[in-house]
Structures are given as C-alpha cells and as structure tokens.
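[Discussion] Sanity-checking designs against the backbone

I'm trying to build intuition for which residues belong where. Below is a structure token string of 144 positions. I'd appreciate it if someone posts a full sequence so I can compare it with mine line by line.
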C-alpha cells in the first residue's frame, strides 16, 4: 500500500502547487501509471512515451497485472493525451480502450522548423543529434 500513499502525497503536493502558482494543466507520463488514484484540481494530459503495456505488447512479453491496472486507471482519468507518433497513439488506444478523439499526435515533441541548419556543409564528424532517451528498448545499446 505504500504506492497508494505515495500517490496521495504527490496528489496533495501537485494540487497545492497548481493552486498557489495558478497552473491550469498538468502533464504526466504514461509509464507505470504514476497518476493512478490521484484526483487533481486541474485537467490532466498524459504523454505517451512507452507505457509498460505498450512495450510489453511490442516485445511480446507478459506484463505484470499491477502495472496494467495502474496504467489503465491513470489513462482513464486523463482529459487528453499526447502521442509522439500516430502508431503509438493508435496502439495505446487499442491496448487500453481509449477514446481516439482525445489523442493529439505531436511528432518528436518539438518544432523541427526551429532547427534549420543554414550551413549543412559545416559539421563535426561522428556527431549525432538525438532527441530522446537513450535506453535499451529504444535501441540505445546499439550506439557505439
């Protein structure tokens, strides 16, 4: 039950800060359903970036039941969702039975037009710009 009290502690903190700082929206990740069992005073937007259920499905691995329940509970309480790709949004909607109309795809989570290389001939050899998390399940172990 420590997970429940931890979430309630986070809920209290988030609600206090949102009121004090006049914050009108909270964004949270989907992974492990951190917002499950929270009642926030402002709308919650959940960002899809690889829930446990999503990657277990892609990897054909069995998921812990508790993780699925937490993720589904958190997702069902959200007002809207942000997905980095259409595929991730559609797959997550299928897994959890979500309303697809509440999903907005924002590719890469940044505006690519703000990264215009005006001197493409000028570059550093063996340099890579990677926007994301370097982890095994996203191919991070292959960088070398």
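Best answer:
Here's mine. Compare freely.
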């Amino acid at each position: 039950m420590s997970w429940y009290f931890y979430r309630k502690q986070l809920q209290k903190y988030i609600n206090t800060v949102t009121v004090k700082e006049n914050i009108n929206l909270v964004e949270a990740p989907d992974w492990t359903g951190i917002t499950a069992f929270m009642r926030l005073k402002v709308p919650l937007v959940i960002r899809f970036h690889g829930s446990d259920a999503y990657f277990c499905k892609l990897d054909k691995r069995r998921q812990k039941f508790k993780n699925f329940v937490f993720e589904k509970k958190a997702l069902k309480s959200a007002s809207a969702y942000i997905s980095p790709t259409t595929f991730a949004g559609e797959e997550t909607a299928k897994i959890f039975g979500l309303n697809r109309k509440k999903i907005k795809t924002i590719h890469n989570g940044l505006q690519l037009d703000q990264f215009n290389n005006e001197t493409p001939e000028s570059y550093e050899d063996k340099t890579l710009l990677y926007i994301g998390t370097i982890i095994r399940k996203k191919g991070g172990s292959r960088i070398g």
